[in-house]
């Protein structure tokens, strides 16, 4: 097994007043040549946006962009004509492809919104842009990982143009689960949303990131009530 550990307090940080953002990988003004990506996982931003504020209209192309609200709600608008509100308990995906303009704003004038912004390099260039969002309520399981993203439109969760699988899991203290990789050439990046866990012998705390590869499975034990995101991605870009 090969691994890399990113402690929560080692992340890049940008405080714009209206936006507090923690960058696991190099992003915007935070540049660390040793932390450019984990395989095709390019961006993992942990964002908090103040009430009534947000990201103005801006362009993207040839990137799979995933948003996962952790509390509150985001209002999304894009050049494809989509206008939507994405709430905690939902997941959003946008394939930028040949190019798209979009904006993301806090949908509340009173409360902040917290969400993960995740970028994945696609395995196909210049695809037709697309947008999707779903509720995760029907997928949720107790004390087990459940799939929220895959390469396949017919599978559980949203889909992307990449051989990637994302799983979430909420665990009570002492509970365990094993995640088996779909492809032995992939790696898994675990991001601890809440709690304390042990993964393949490594103890992890809230907002720690832990990437592993050259493994067939991930073994997790919850050391406290925990919420974990697993991102299985190809290691070769």
Automatic annotation (TrEMBL):
Transmembrane domains' residue ranges: none
Signal peptide: none
Positions of the Quercetin 2,3-dioxygenase C-terminal cupin domain: 148-233
Domain Pirin N-terminal intervals: 11-120
One of the Pfam families matching this protein, by short name: Pirin_C_2
Alphabetized InterPro entries for the sequence: Pirin, Pirin_N_dom, Quercetinase_C, RmlC-like_jellyroll, RmlC_Cupin_sf
PANTHER family referenced in this protein's UniProt entry, alphabetically: QUERCETIN 2,3-DIOXYGENASE
Family membership noted in the UniProt record: Belongs to the pirin family.
Protein name, entry field: Pirin family protein
Taxonomic source organism: Flavobacterium chuncheonense
């Amino acid at each position: 097994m090969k691994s890399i550990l990113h402690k929560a307090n080692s992340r890049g940080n940008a405080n714009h007043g209206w936006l507090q953002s923690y960058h696991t990988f190099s992003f915007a003004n935070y540049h660390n040549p040793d932390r450019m990506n984990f395989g095709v996982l390019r961006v993992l931003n942990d964002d908090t946006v103040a009430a009534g504020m947000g990201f103005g209209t801006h362009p993207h192309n040839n990137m799979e962009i995933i948003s996962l609200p952790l509390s509150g709600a985001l209002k999304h608008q894009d050049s494809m004509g989509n206008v939507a509100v994405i709430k905690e308990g939902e997941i959003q995906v946008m394939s930028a492809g040949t190019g798209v303009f979009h904006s993301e704003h806090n949908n509340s004038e009173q409360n902040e919104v917290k969400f993960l912004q995740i970028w994945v390099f696609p395995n196909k260039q210049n695809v037709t842009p697309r947008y999707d969002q779903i509720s995760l309520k029907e997928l949720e399981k107790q004390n087990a990982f459940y799939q929220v993203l895959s390469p396949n439109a017919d599978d559980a969760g949203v889909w992307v143009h990449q051989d990637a699988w994302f799983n979430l899991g909420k665990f009570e203290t002492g509970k365990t689960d094993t995640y088996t990789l779909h492809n032995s050439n992939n790696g898994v990046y675990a991001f601890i949303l809440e709690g304390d866990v042990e993964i393949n012998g490594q103890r992890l705390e809230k907002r720690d990131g832990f990437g592993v590869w050259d493994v067939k499975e991930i073994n997790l034990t919850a050391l406290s009530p925990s919420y974990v995101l697993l991102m299985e991605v190809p290691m070769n870009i």
